[in-house]
Amino acid sequence: MNETAHDLGPADDAGRAELLEAALAGLRARPRGLSPKFFYDERGSRLFDAICEQPEYYPTRTEMAILETIRAEVAELAGRDTLLVEMGAGAARKVRLLLDALEPAGYLGADISWDFLRECTERLAADYPWLDVRAACVDYSRDFDLPLDPGGPRPLAFFPGSSIGNFHPEEARAVLARLAAALGTGAGLLIGVDLKKDPAILNAAYNDAAGVTAAFNHNLLLRLREELGAELDPDGFAHRAFYNPDAGRVEMHLASQGPQRIELGGELFEFEDGETIHTECSYKYTVEEFQDLGRSAGFAPRRVWTDPEELFSVHYLTT
Ligand code: AVJ
């Protein structure tokens, strides 16, 4: 981190209060659910990195291969004097690919996991001494601001990994619209979006044989126990992940193995056998569906690339 960094960190107690409130509301609701944004504490962020290394989880390596192929073209589209804004920083290898090709004037990492973000940006700053590296703690599911200099370099937002897929389509539109507003006119967006495909490929990707995705899912229960003092048996819940074709999304759940209870904040939550906590939606889009979504959020689709097997897409749009 260099000295010009404007670091916006979260208050830890506020983070815990938010998790508690969300967990209570999510456990009281029917069906029960919790936002996938709570996966990404430090341990969860590391588990996600490990997911990306699993042979069944094609999105990361496929997006990397696309980026490697297109980066010179992206550099030309973006032009000189850009500020690379990484949404959901921590994808260190992906952003390095772009940094080498773009040679931007600056880098701003925006992520919800503050500790992880700091670690990633510090490493980036050490490896790229010529680069002005900044960090901002941002939760895209709410209104957000980016610390951009008016009259500074032209922002190019980089939103890799199909993270946008975690939002319901209407929310995704709102996130993109807020991003367009935060970036201002004349900015670019390079965004990775997972494509609709054979459900067998999707089901395998979210049920890796090594059980890393299962551990990632279980991490939510561990957080409730460790951070909120919940009384629960993490092993009493099984990882469930499957493609829901009607909704066009992969769903992850934690399914109660037999009847059991969770105690949290003085409240008792009774689970029937098989009852689930819905922990994630991962929406998949056709190229046309995502372009329509971008347009409805105020972006103009400019280019789109896919891999030869059409597993994954990378879109370039402008405000
Ligand atoms: C980071 C939201 C894109 O949906 O594939 C990976 C998260 N969940 N395995 C995805 C995830 C289970 C991932 N995103």
Give a concise summary.
It is built from 9 helices and 13 strands. The protein has 319 residues and is an alpha/beta fold.
Q: In words, what does this structure look like?
A:
The chain contains 9 helices and 13 strands. With 319 residues, it is of the alpha/beta class. It has helices spanning 12-28, 42-52, 58-78, 92-102, 114-127, 169-183, 199-205, 212-228, 287-296, and strands at 32-33, 82-87, 106-111, 132-137, 154-159, 188-194, 237-244, 249-256, 260-264, 267-271, 276-283, 300-306, 312-318. α2 (42-52) packs antiparallel against α8 (212-228) and α3 runs parallel beside α4 (92-102). The strands form 3 sheets. It has a 7-stranded mixed sheet with strand order 4-3-2-5-6-13-12, with helices on both faces. It has a 4-stranded mixed sheet with strand order 1-11-8-7. The longest helix has 21 residues, at 58-78. The protein binds N,N,N-trimethyl-histidine. N,N,N-trimethyl-histidine binds at residues 51, 59, 161-163, 165-166, 206, 213, 280, 282.
Fold blueprint:
Layout: H1 12-28, E1 32-33, H2 42-52, H3 58-78, E2 82-87, H4 92-102, E3 106-111, H5 114-127, E4 132-137, E5 154-159, H6 169-183, E6 188-194, H7 199-205, H8 212-228, E7 237-244, E8 249-256, E9 260-264, E10 267-271, E11 276-283, H9 287-296, E12 300-306, E13 312-318
Parallel strand pairs: 1-11, 2-3, 2-5, 3-4, 5-6
Antiparallel strand pairs: 6-13, 7-8, 8-11, 9-10, 12-13
Helix pairs in contact: 2-8, 3-4
The structure holds N,N,N-trimethyl-histidine (AVJ).
